[in-house]
Q: What sequence folds into this?
């Protein structure tokens, strides 16, 4: 974690239905951004109750969790945040999901705002697993995200919810250019063609991730399978890097990070 410099980016991943892969995708993207481009990444698990992002990355019990930080926003500073995080990999930190009841939405809103500002100032990249809940606090938080990634599957039962989710986001004031939909688990069960989905949802779907039994595994140095390449392409889009660029070191790495943080070009 770096000293404060308020420029990190926030990405919010939203599942339009349970089991579409939101958490797995958050974890995989976190690993890739941290390992491949050495960006300082924070995963925040907003799923309540029963978020499992930390569990996917570490076998250890978290010492603290999101609920602890939101309880006393006035005490929340870099030291407290640092102490609450798990660090399963170099450059990758996780704030585990709340295990206790959260505070009332009004009190939560101020705490959430403070936490996000702090996270932005300390990390290059903040990935939020937002699960399925769209309460007022979540919506407020989503507006602050640089990109919202609704995750869905190409099945009939998911389309309706995908559309509802997109409409809810736009109705709440999220800008279309903030939204980067991700079609996950392509090739599984009865499928709706992606092109038809694009028509129904009224948006392009450039990121299509195939179903694969190894989807939860860390990616090899040289991805060869379609699911690995699509995942890498999505991570590269978030990192604003060409896909083939592996981790750099020393001065060059610092220069790349600076380019990434200040480059205003949209994804
Ligand atoms: N592209 C994929 N190929 C194969 N398996 C996948 C893929 N994406 C996700 N999965 C698997 O699907 C299961 C559900 O994924 P995950 O827990 O990430 O979904 P979720 O949307 O977070 O669900 P929940 O609503 O319970 O939070 C996991 O076992 C995960 O490994
Ligand atoms: Mg989940």
A:
């Amino acid at each position: 974690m770096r000293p404060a410099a308020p420029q990190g980016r926030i990405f919010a991943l939203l599942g339009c239905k349970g089991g579409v892969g939101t958490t797995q995708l958050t974890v995989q993207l976190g690993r890739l951004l941290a390992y491949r481009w050495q960006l300082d990444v924070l995963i925040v698990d907003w799923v309540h109750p029963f978020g499992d992002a930390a569990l996917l990355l570490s076998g250890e019990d978290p010492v603290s969790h999101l609920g602890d930080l939101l309880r006393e926003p006035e005490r929340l500073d870099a030291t407290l945040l640092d102490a609450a995080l798990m660090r399963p990999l170099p450059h990758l930190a996780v704030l585990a999901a709340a295990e206790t009841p959260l505070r009332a939405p009004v009190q939560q809103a101020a705490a959430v705002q403070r936490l996000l500002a702090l996270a932005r100032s300390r990390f290059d990249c903040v990935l939020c697993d937002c699960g399925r809940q769209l309460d007022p606090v979540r919506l407020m938080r989503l507006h602050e995200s640089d990109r919202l990634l609704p995750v869905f599957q190409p099945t009939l039962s998911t389309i309706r919810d995908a559309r509802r989710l997109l409409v809810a986001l736009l109705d709440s004031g999220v800008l279309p250019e903030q939204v980067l939909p991700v079609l996950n688990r392509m090739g599984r069960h009865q499928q709706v063609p992606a092109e038809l989905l694009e028509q129904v949802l009224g948006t392009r779907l450039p990121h299509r991730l195939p179903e694969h039994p190894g989807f939860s595994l860390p990616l090899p140095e040289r991805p060869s399978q379609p699911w690995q390449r699509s995942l890498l392409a999505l991570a590269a889009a978030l990192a604003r890097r060409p896909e083939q660029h592996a981790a750099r070191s020393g001065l060059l790495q610092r220069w790349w990070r600076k380019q990434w943080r200040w480059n205003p070009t949209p994804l």
In short: The chain has a mean pLDDT of 86. The chain has one domain: 9-260.
